[in-house]
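Example with several molecule types.
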Amino acid sequence: MKLILDAMGGDNAPLEILKGAAMAVSEYPDVELALTGQKDTILALCEKEKISLERMEIIDAPEVVTMEDPAQSVVMSKKNSSMGVGLKALAAGEGDAFISAGNTGALMTGATLLVRCVKGVKRAAIATILPMENPVLMIDSGSNVTVSPEYLLQFGILGSVYMEQLFGVEKPRVGLLNNGTEEHKGTPTLVEAHKLMANCPVINFVGNVEGKAIPFGACDVLVTDGFTGNVVLKTVEGLSKFIMKKLKGIFMSNTKNKLAALMINSDLSALKKSFDASEYGGAPFLGISKPVFKAHGSSDAKAIKNAVRQARDYVSKGVSAIIDERITSGLAPAAEIKTEDKKEN
Amino acid sequence: MKLILDAMGGDNAPLEILKGAAMAVSEYPDVELALTGQKDTILALCEKEKISLERMEIIDAPEVVTMEDPAQSVVMSKKNSSMGVGLKALAAGEGDAFISAGNTGALMTGATLLVRCVKGVKRAAIATILPMENPVLMIDSGSNVTVSPEYLLQFGILGSVYMEQLFGVEKPRVGLLNNGTEEHKGTPTLVEAHKLMANCPVINFVGNVEGKAIPFGACDVLVTDGFTGNVVLKTVEGLSKFIMKKLKGIFMSNTKNKLAALMINSDLSALKKSFDASEYGGAPFLGISKPVFKAHGSSDAKAIKNAVRQARDYVSKGVSAIIDERITSGLAPAAEIKTEDKKEN
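Resulting structure tokens for the full complex:
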């Protein structure tokens, strides 16, 4: 298969992207890569750093979407950016998936406008793994700040297919993030979403899930709007860092503690690493008709390799086709429920 | 001063409440307590457990609001509950503050209907201390699931007075919880709230705050709606527990690690305790015209004593009067801004 990789997106582009590309190609014999970006820059850097371009081609793209560019730039002022060119190549069938560590908003806008959503899907969403007791897929984790009950239902279906296919979870338990477990809890949108999800035949809905239950395996797929998802994701990130910093403070506070730290150093590093979501690869934009993956902005070569692996698994398992089918069968009854509700009102 | 205490509310009532009451009275010579609850039960228990009732009176209340009762019960079916009787006594001026570890929803509904909001305040909110690098007051942390921009502005004013008066923070930095720091970020409600807060002369507004910045002292008062606040509060609670559990797993995994754990045991216990918000006393219902405090449902005697201390400080510093004054001067210009905005549209 051929995967398209944005060579210019992310804090450490292009060097770490190119190194990651080389690692991926060497590790996955079935993968070819098409790199989008400034051809001369890429060639010069690969020569200087002795990075092999075996099984890679370069699609020249003179511009770069920066983190400061508005989301629309990829289809407006920066059509010829590495991101714009890559998305167009994906839409045209010149590759099987697109991976970028660049501007998230621009990538979502570009993917929606250039690659389009799956038929029937109202809004694509960013799905991110929270590294907890079991991996939890949070969807939406940042894209749709306001949502409708139907969006939330669709997020549940999309996330469910992803966890089933990519993480081998049978009948993934889908939870709705809420401020209480009772079904009447939350905003009117959440109350209505709860009804839709409880009646949807293609998801294993386990009801409302509270924040305190997230780490302890309450669900495999955590459905929420992009605002709450973003706040939760960043709170988890900040709090993990904060606690690790506090621990470090304890371990460095005196000689006895320093000795204790030495004794368990490797285990603590493993704990710290277990909170590193980049181990799980990129975050898929679920609901886009072809696979688009967002790697973390600060991705190093290994994180890029992991994102390529995730995209490869997605393609080889035919996840897009399964999503198509599941959305079609999942939404029919939801539409019926909505009609019934309207009749009652 | 006389503080009214719900003797029947909370998981450990009435025993731990009564013990906490006795601790508070013995520690704070200026405090008298009025306990609301089943008089015979209280008297019998105090005799059996040898709990002194010095400087305490009992206001008999035959009913108890349970955690399962609907929020309206305190003013409907259970008017004569320890909570209902306590709130009515506060409204009638028979005490200076009311403290309960009972049903949060019922307490807020009862406080709003029986004690009423400060003049000009649209909605009261629960304010909770997050125990981070510096204590952060999150308001609303659970009451108002949907909010208007003006509610959020008022939460900022209320929280600001609280941190200034109770925690001695000069010009508390007020942040708006959002999914990005730029002023255009978030829902339309948040964009509008940002404008109101930036133009409010009685708060020190520092702009939008992301989840990852909460632990690291980005602000002293974190303004949010009650839905997001509840999710954040519970996520922080769950994640802290989860990380502490993981640490315990590391420390118990082999003999070497067990030895290391022994060496730093007291420091780890201190770390665990630093995440215990009950050290900070009860959560005030800010915006209610008289002081109402919610102690955690699982409060033990010490947590009750801390909640009594917090209520005592609130009363002795005259926080209610300062809130009255600050709301009046804070809202006048906000109203002008709104009028200007309307003219433009």
